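User: Please fill in residues for this 45-position structure.
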């Protein structure tokens, strides 16, 4: 479900303040990929 992917991505962003700034890019990339997958799923419907 796309909603689950979006919620999971937002949850990952909530922990950024506990990570060194250098690790933020990895999190942003993972969330971006997850959101792209969620959008692709919507396009298939």
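Assistant: Residues filled in for all 45 positions:
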């Amino acid at each position: 479900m796309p909603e689950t992917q979006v919620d999971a991505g937002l949850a990952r962003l909530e922990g950024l303040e506990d990570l060194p700034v250098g690790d933020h890019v990895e999190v942003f990339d993972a969330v971006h990929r997850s959101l792209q997958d969620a959008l692709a799923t919507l396009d298939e419907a």
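For context: The chain has a mean pLDDT of 89.
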